[in-house]
Amino acid sequence: MSKVAVVDIDNTLWQFCDALYEKLRKVNQNFPPPESWTHWDLWESYCSKDDFFKAINEIHFNQDSDQYLPYPQAEGFLSSLRGSGYRITIASHRSPHFREQTERWLQKHGLVYDELHLSFHKTRLFDMFTDVVVDDAPQVLEKAVESGARAVGLLFPWNQAYSKNGFSLHDDLNEVLSHILGK
Ligand SMILES: [Mg+2]
Predict the structure, then answer these.
(1) pTM of the predicted protein model
(2) 152 Cα to the center of ligand 1, angstroms
(3) Which of 6, 102, 111, 119 is most deeply packed, by most CB within 10 A?
(4) How buried is residue 67: exposed, middle or buried, by Cβ count under 10 Å (0-12/13-18/19+)?
(5) Sheet of strand 132-134: strand arrangement
(6) Domains of the chain by range and CATH?
(7) How far is the CA of 138 from the centre of ligand 1 (A)?
(8) Percent of the chain scored above 70 by pLDDT?
(9) Mean pLDDT of 112-134
(10) Residue pLDDT, tens place only, 18-58
(11) Three-class SS state of 18
(12) Ligand 1 centroid to residue 156 C-alpha, Å
């Protein structure tokens, strides 16, 4: 039986935070850069909830535009996982309305997967059959650990403080891959 990996998109397969920062600094030029995004609710001091979610939705609506590129290691990361016997569910915290552009983006960049899950409750996917969860959000990684999966992701200012909570955070996807494959 294949092993199961659940892999996030934003800030896992590409640098979503930079795209979001570009949008938010147009709303408020004082919006701080991603290097200082240590808490998820930091935006509340700089823009309205509407502005914040509008910026996120605009990016997801245009996911397949030429300006939104995956990390250079993303393609090899997914194909190596699959080559090592993992069944890959790509799971992103975004509206299912953005499915077409998300599929086009994955296809365009050769990002292989078996299933695509778009919702605002992806942690419901985690069960006893989930072997590994790759994500950057501490709350998601904590749920993965609770479900008995291995939790691993890229290191960012917003997850740094949680790095002792049973998951493993790394500087790039090659390190994430080595950790998963035990190399
Ligand atoms: Mg993410």
Answers:
(1) 0.96
(2) 12
(3) 6
(4) exposed
(5) 115-119, 86-93, 3-7, 132-134, 150-154, 168-170
(6) 3-15+70-181 (3.40.50.1000), 16-61 (no CATH)
(7) 10
(8) 99
(9) 96
(10) 999 999 999 999 999 999 999 878 899 999 999 999 999 99
(11) helix
(12) 10
